[in-house]
Specification:
Elements lengths: L2 H6 L3 H11 L7 E4 L9 H16 L3 E6 L9 H13 L8 E3 L4 H13 L3 E4 L3 H7 L17 H13 L8 E4 L14 E5 L13 E3 L1 H11 L4 E5 L6 H10 L7 E5 L11 H9 L14 H7 L3 H11 L10 H15 L1 E3 L1 E2 L2 E6 L7 E7 L9 E7 L1 E5 L19 E4 L4 E9 L5 E8 L17 E2 L1 E3 L4 E8 L22 E8 L11 E3 L3 E5 L9 E6 L4 H7 L3
Parallel strand pairs: 1-2, 2-3, 8-9, 10-23, 12-18, 16-19, 21-25
Antiparallel strand pairs: 4-5, 5-6, 6-7, 11-22, 12-15, 13-14, 15-20, 16-17, 17-18, 21-22, 23-24, 24-25
Helix pairs in contact: 3-12, 8-9, 12-13
Bound molecules: adenosine-5'-triphosphate (ATP) and magnesium ion.
C-alpha cells in the first residue's frame, strides 16, 4: 500500500484487493476498463476509470483499456478515438495494454465449439419471439427449446455454417445449455452467439456471428489475467454465469467479478442510449456540447480533469445505489478553479455609463491583481476612461431596501478604480434604461476615499473603448427535474439550459486561448473552441455560488 492509497480513501474494493495481495492470492493486481465503443464516455464512466486505473496505480499493478466491441451495428471508430482521448485526458495511461474483445474472437469461437463438443451448448432455431416466451419470468420457470437436444455433431455443423454466413440475421443462435428452470434468468440457456451480417470497425467482414456480452466479457478477462473484474451492480445477477463459463472452459486464469454502485447525479441522465438520443435528436449540439455530462462536454465547458478526479474521490465507492447532488460536482469544480483561475472583468449584460466629469478623449491605466491569493500571478493594466460598461443588474432606478449597488444618487466603488455616483438615467422610447450619466471622484483613485467615507458595493466594469465584444454562454442543467425520466427524457428537458449573452470582456482576453478564468462576481469561464474562428466565445464552466438551487426553489 502506498501513500496514495491512504489519500484515495479506503472502500470495500480496495480492502478486497489489499487482502488478496496480503494473503498472496495474487502477486499483483490487474484490472481493466471495458467500454463499449457505442458512444462517448460520461462522468459515470469516470468513476469506473478512476477506480480501475486508480487501483492499478495505488497497488502497483496494471489496468488494461479493453474495448468491448462485440456489437458492430452500434460501434464506430469515432467512439474508439474519443474514448482513448478522454481516458488520457483524465490522467490515466494504459501503456501497452490496449486490447479489444475482437482480438479474442478466434479463441472465443474455439471455446464455443468446445462447449458444443461437451454437450454444453446448442444451436437454437426458435424465433426471437419464441425464445422470449419460453424464457419464463421472475416467478415462472422457462421451457426447454425443442432444439435443445440436438446432437453435438449437428450443433457443431450448424455453428460452423452460422460462421460461414449461410443463414440470415436472427435465423439461429448458439445457446449455453444450463438450466431453463433456474431462479436466475441469466442461467436459462443464455445466448452465446448471434448472427449479424455487419461490418466491424476492426475485423471488417471477417465475422458474421458475434459473441454476446456475457460470453465475451469474462473470457476476455481470463485471457488478460485480470484479477479483479469490477463492474456496476446491474451485473450482480450475471456473476453466476460469469463463473459458469470460467468453470466450464479451459481458461488461462480465473478472475473474480466485483460489483459497485454506479454513479447517478441529480438532473443528469448517465446513459449512452439517452446521450445518443440527445445528440441525434439535436437537443444538444453534439457529444461535446458543454451541457452534456460527457467527458468531452465537461472538458469543453472548462472543467479540469483534476476536479473530476477530486469529485470521484469524494463520493467514494459503495455497494448501495444512491444519487449524488450535482452541487457536489460543482463544489469540486470550484475548489479546483479557485486556486488556478486568474481573475478578469467581463460585463455580461452591458449598461453604458458616461462619467461626465472625466475629460473627453483621455484615459488612464489602472492596476488589477490577477489572483487575490497568489501574488506570483502578478498584476495587469486595465484602461479606464469617460465611457464604461457596468452590469445592467447592478443598477436599479427605484431600488428596494437593501439594494446597495448603483441607483440614482447612490455612490459605489468601481473595482480597482474610483467611486462613482449616478445622477441621471437615459431611456429609450420603450422606457428601458440605456445609459447612466454619472460622475467620478478623482480623489478615490484605487478605490478608497481619503476622507474615509465608505460605500457598500464594489462593482466590476469594463472600458467602453478598450473592451471587446464577446459571446457568453451560460449553462443550466439540461433537465428540469432532479430525477428526469430516462424513458421519456424529452418531456423533462430544460428549455433554458443555454442562455446566450452578448457582453464585453477585458482586452487581455483577446487571443481566446486563455485557460479557465474567473470573471469577477460572475463565475468561471473558458474560451470555447469556436473562439478560434474570430469572434470571442466564452463558456461558463460554473458560477461562483449555487444560483441554480435558488432559482429552482423559487419556481422560476
Ligand atoms: P451506459 O449505461 O451509459 O450505456 P454502459 O455500462 O453501457 O453505460 P460501457 O461502455 O459498457 O457502458 O461501460 C464501461 C464501464 O463503465 C462498465 O464497466 C460500466 O459498468 C461502467 N459504467 C457505466 N456507467 C457507469 C456509471 N454511471 N457509474 C459507474 N460506472 C459506470
Ligand atoms: Mg455496458
Amino acid at each position: 500500500m502506498t501513500d496514495e492509497t491512504i489519500e484515495a480513501g479506503r472502500d470495500f474494493i480496495r480492502d478486497i484487493v489489499a487482502a488478496d495481495l496480503e494473503s498472496g492470492r495474487h502477486k499483483s493486481v490487474v484490472t481493466r476498463f471495458p467500454p463499449e465503443p457505442n458512444g462517448y464516455l460520461h462522468i459515470g464512466h469516470a468513476k469506473s476509470i478512476c477506480l480501475n486505473f486508480g487501483l492499478a496505480r495505488e497497488f502497483g499493478g496494471r489496468c488494461n483499456l479493453r474495448f468491448d466491441d462485440t456489437n458492430p451495428t452500434k460501434e464506430e471508430q469515432e467512439y474508439i478515438d474519443a474514448i482513448k482521448r478522454d481516458v488520457q485526458w483524465l490522467g490515466f495511461d494504459w501503456g501497452k495494454h490496449l486490447y479489444h474483445a475482437s482480438d479474442y474472437f478466434e479463441q472465443i469461437y474455439d471455446w464455443a465449439v468446445l462447449l458444443i463438443r461437451d454437450g454444453k451448448a446448442y444451436v437454437d432455431d426458435q424465433t426471437p419471439d419464441e425464445m422470449r416466451l419460453s424464457r419464463g419470468t421472475l416467478t415462472e420457470p422457462g421451457k426447454n427449446s425443442p432444439w435443445r437436444d440436438r446432437s453435438a455433431d449437428e450443433n457443431a455443423d450448424l455453428f460452423k455454417r452460422m460462421r460461414a454466413g449461410e443463414f440470415p440475421n436472427g435465423a439461429r443462435v448458439l445457446r449455453a445449455k444450463i438450466d431453463m428452470t433456474s431462479g436466475n434468468i441469466n442461467l436459462r440457456d443464455p445466448v452465446l452467439y448471434r448472427i449479424l451480417h455487419a461490418n466491424h470497425p476492426r475485423t471488417g467482414t471477417a465475422w458474421c456471428i458475434y459473441p454476446s456480452y456475457d460470453f465475451a466479457h469474462g473470457q476476455s478477462d481470463a485471457i488478460e489475467h485480470v484479477t479483479h473484474s469490477i463492474c456496476t451492480l446491474e451485473f450482480e445477477d450475471h456473476r453466476p454465469l460469469y463463473e459458469w463459463f470460467l468453470d466450464n472452459l479451459p481458461v488461462p486464469s480465473h478472475p473474480h467479478q466485483y460489483e459497485f454502485a454506479r454513479l447517478n447525479i441529480t438532473a443528469t441522465l448517465l446513459s449512452k442510449r439517452v446521450l445518443n438520443a440527445l445528440v441525434t435528436g439535436k437537443h444538444v449540439d453534439g457529444w461535446d456540447d458543454p451541457r452534456m455530462p460527457t467527458i468531452a462536454g465537461l472538458r469543453r465547458r472548462g472543467v479540469p480533469a483534476d476536479a473530476i478526479r477530486d469529485f470521484i474521490k469524494r463520493i467514494g465507492v459503495a455497494k448501495a445505489n444512491s444519487i449524488v447532488d450535482s452541487a457536489q460536482f460543482d463544489f469540486s469544480v470550484r475548489e479546483s478553479l479557485n486556486k488556478t483561475a486568474q481573475r478578469r472583468m467581463a460585463v455580461l449584460r452591458p449598461l453604458k455609463v458616461v462619467l461626465e466629469n472625466y475629460p473627453e478623449g483621455e484615459s488612464e491605466e489602472l492596476e488589477a491583481v490577477n489572483h487575490p491569493d497568489d501574488p506570483a500571478a502578478g498584476t495587469r493594466k486595465i484602461k479606464f476612461g469617460r465611457e464604461l460598461y457596468i452590469e445592467a443588474d447592478d443598477f436599479m432606478e427605484i431600488p428596494p431596501k437593501k439594494f446597495f449597488r448603483l441607483s440614482p444618487g447612490s455612490e459605489v466603488r468601481l473595482r480597482y478604480a474610483y467611486f462613482i455616483k449616478c445622477h441621471e438615467v437615459k431611456k429609450n422610447a420603450a422606457g428601458e434604461v440605456i445609459e447612466l450619466r454619472c460622475t467620478y471622484d478623482p480623489a478615490t483613485k484605487g478605490g478608497n476615499a481619503p476622507d474615509g467615507r465608505k460605500v457598500k458595493a464594489t462593482m466590476h466594469w469594463v472600458s467602453a473603448k478598450q473592451s471587446l465584444p464577446a459571446e457568453l454562454r451560460l449553462y443550466n442543467p439540461l433537465f428540469t427535474k432532479p430525477d428526469p425520466d430516462g424513458s421519456n427524457f424529452a418531456a423533462d428537458i430544460n428549455p433554458s439550459s443555454l442562455e446566450v449573452l452578448q457582453g464585453r470582456v477585458e482586452p487581455a482576453l483577446a487571443d481566446g486561448n486563455a485557460a479557465v478564468i474567473q470573471f469577477e462576481r460572475q463565475g468561471y469561464f473558458c474560451p470555447d473552441i469556436e473562439s478560434k474562428s474570430g469572434k470571442l466565445v466564452f463558456n461558463r464552466t460554473v458560477g461562483l455560488r449555487d444560483t441554480w438551487a435558488k432559482v429552482a426553489a423559487s419556481g422560476g
